[in-house]
Amino acid sequence: MDAKTLCLGVLTLGDASGYEIKKHFEEGPFAHFHAAGFGSIYPALNALLREGHVTRTETTQTGRPDKKIYKITEAGRKAFRHALHKDPAPDSYRSEAIFMMFFSDLLDGDQVRHVYDEYLAKYRTRADRMARQDSCSCQNGQRFVHGLGLAIYRAVVSYMEQNRGLLLAPHATQQGGGAASVAE
Amino acid sequence: MDAKTLCLGVLTLGDASGYEIKKHFEEGPFAHFHAAGFGSIYPALNALLREGHVTRTETTQTGRPDKKIYKITEAGRKAFRHALHKDPAPDSYRSEAIFMMFFSDLLDGDQVRHVYDEYLAKYRTRADRMARQDSCSCQNGQRFVHGLGLAIYRAVVSYMEQNRGLLLAPHATQQGGGAASVAE
DNA sequence: CATTCATATCTCGCAGCGATATATATCTAG
DNA sequence: CTAGATATATATCGCTGCGAGATATGAATG
Q1: Is the CATH number 3.40.50.10420 carried by domain B3-84?
Q2: Whether A30 contacts chain B with CB within 8 A
Q3: pTM, rounded to two decimals
Q4: Which chain B residue shows the shortest CA-CA distance from A145?
């Protein structure tokens, strides 16, 4: 699925600028299942404009830089629906943090603890934020995806809490404690 | 984390050819947390050879094409350990299937059912395979990562089974027949 | 008064994914 | 018995697109 299709998808939810589309991929409802950077979004929007799949309105703002609001056209909706009817590419997940934890025996204790703590904190924050967001979205697909994200985040948090001992020294589970043998 | 570091990581687990390294990323213990294609692996191995981080042994096989076995050097181990001490890049997860399910209201029922069924089947298979693999790996980091993968897959399967109704029409599950109201 | 942050658009280089080419032996189907 | 698929094995090429930076400005922070 290319960047154009992703942008069209966001635009079916409402008109937006390139900047807003990016934010959508960072904080929005499917932030957790896809990403896109400026380097893909802006070229994609220009291509969509050329193809007549979106229209562009330039809004002059006082103070702020000018905004270019993109709106999906009927042709765009049709193209998007068409793209959704192809077989989905397989999922791809990549996590450097987990790769590091896999090799925890090659790392010193402080680094493992650091990576573990940061990772758990990040997933806790996300789970909390998602739980608060609730399902303001009325559409079933959106509710389904939101719930799935939440379920995954909770599973990760729960597993990590219960298996901390596997990664971090078998002796002390305390963090404040006095670093007995671990000296640097 | 670049392809070179990923290859070094695999080679700390044992000598391997480029082909075997690829298989490692497809079926091995961290298959689920990273991927790499030939287009990244072979150039990476050549670069590592130039840098002295691996050595290469050409083995002539009868029948099969020649194999080039790569072995990590002391310098390579050091470089790998060094790379593991940098802050990990944030996770990235991309799933076209979930993106599609998000927009399930724009798709016709057959397509949604198709995507849902394929997706659930794939995750069930993976969860089963992982459960069977067990933790033959004695190292803690490997056990931790294996368990985490299993926990995530189980959470996905469980959530999807319980929330099938959100995506697929509330009335009928209609697989074959005329479909009354409640079939399941 | 300086700096950092948030809004906003856009380009460029480099990494790397997917597809393809090449070669061969075995396994499967017609 | 041959045709095609499958598995082993290496390698390159083009296109996509990510990350980093350039550019611009007002508002909040120090």
Answers
A1: no
A2: yes
A3: 0.88
A4: B102
Nearest residue: Cα versus C1' of D21: A39
Positive/negative CA dihedral, B137, B9, B124, A121: positive
Interface probe, candidates A2, A74, A98, chain B, greatest B C-beta count within 10 A: A98
In the stretch 84-113 of chain A, residues with CB closer than 8 A to chain B read 84-85, 88-107, 111
Q: What is the model's pLDDT at position B149?
A: 94
Q: Cα(A53)–Cα(B50) distance, rounded to whole angstroms?
A: 48
Nearest to A94 among B35, B84, B155 (CB): B35
- Cα(A62)–Cα(A48) distance, rounded to whole angstroms? 28
**Nearest 5°: phi and psi at A72?**
-75, 140
Task: Using CB atoms, pick whichever of A84, A99, A151 lies closest to residue B103.
Answer: A84
Rounded Cα gap, residues B44 and B159, in angstroms: 39
Length in residues, chain B = 184
Domain A3-83 architecture: Orthogonal Bundle (1.10)
pLDDT digits (tens, 9 = 90+) for B105-139: 999 999 999 999 999 999 998 899 888 876 666 78
Give the pLDDT confidence of A120-171 residue by residue, as tens digits: 999 998 899 888 876 666 788 999 999 999 999 999 999 999 999 999 876 5
CA distance B54 to A123: 36
| A72, A11 contact by CB (below 8 A) | yes
d(CA B126, CA B124): 5
Phi, psi dihedral angles at A147 (to 5 degrees): -65, -40
Q: What is the DSSP letter of B35?
A: -
Task: Kindly report, residue by residue over B82-97, the tens digit of the pLDDT.
Answer: 999 999 999 999 999 9
Which alpha helices (H) appear in A103-171, and where do they start and end? 109-133, 140-162, 164-167
